[in-house]
From TrEMBL:
Domain Nudix hydrolase: 23-156
A GO molecular function held by the record: 8-oxo-7,8-dihydrodeoxyguanosine triphosphate pyrophosphatase activity
Family matches, as InterPro entries: CoAse, NUDIX_hydrolase-like_dom_sf, NUDIX_hydrolase_dom
Keywords carried by this UniProt record: Hydrolase, Magnesium, Manganese, Metal-binding
Protein name per Swiss-Prot or TrEMBL: CoA pyrophosphatase
First-tier enzyme category under EC: hydrolase
PROSITE patterns given in the database record: NUDIX (PS51462)
Length: 204
């Protein structure tokens, strides 16, 4: 292969995350709504009939579909479907950082406002209920952080003989911080709490 061929292929590329084609990709919206002169954060309680994470608290969002032109379109589409509102009810939507999870997921996050006059009709198969929390609570309350450690367990046929150290190889264990907010009887944790913490850091 000639050097020009190599250079032509390399210089035409747009850098991305290595292996991202194997990731499951999602987009979510952190919804803000004004109530009684105060900004609130809107949350969903997932339907208790869902197989994945039933009854947990989350933001509206879901998997990116082929018909979605952008990740933002996914976040808006999922929000309208889950909350039973229209795109015209959502405004001033802006991107936050995206998350690459250790479980093979990429989550694109956005924050935006919902018209206070909006009438919600949550989609029962996906959403059990909705509630809001004053943004001031999160501005004044730091999350509790707990660490999860993951052990490395190679499969039985792993070729230890091909690596220096063999079976005594010093693996780097993976650690993940889980964030928790507790508001009245509501426990907000996981990716939802992590996105919320990121948003608070931005606006502070």
């Amino acid at each position: 292969m000639k050097s020009k061929t190599i250079l032509d292929k390399v210089k035409m590329r747009t850098p991305s995350i290595l292996g991202n084609e194997d990731f499951s990709k999602f987009a979510v919206l952190l919804p803000l709504i004004e109530k009684e002169g105060e900004i609130h954060v809107l949350f969903e309680v997932r339907s208790y009939n869902l197989r994945s994470q039933p009854g947990e608290i989350c933001f509206p969002g879901g998997r990116i579909d082929l018909q979605d032109e952008t990740e933002k379109d996914t976040a808006l589409r999922e929000t309208t479907e889950e909350l039973g509102i229209t795109r015209e009810d959502i405004f001033d939507v802006f991107p936050l950082d995206y998350i690459v999870s250790p479980f093979g997921m990429m989550v694109y996050t956005y924050a935006g406002f919902i018209d206070p006059a909006t009438q919600f009709t949550p989609n029962p198969p996906e959403v059990d209920s909705l509630f809001t929390v004053p943004l001031a609570f999160f501005l004044e309350t730091k999350p509790k952080v707990y660490r999860i450690n993951f052990d490395v367990q190679p499969e039985e046929s792993f070729p230890y003989n091909l690596i220096v150290g063999g079976e005594n190889y010093n693996w780097r264990t993976r650690k993940v911080d889980e964030y928790f907010y507790i508001y009245e009887d509501k426990v907000i944790w996981g990716l939802t709490a992590k996105i919320l913490t990121h948003f608070v850091e931005i606006i502070q």
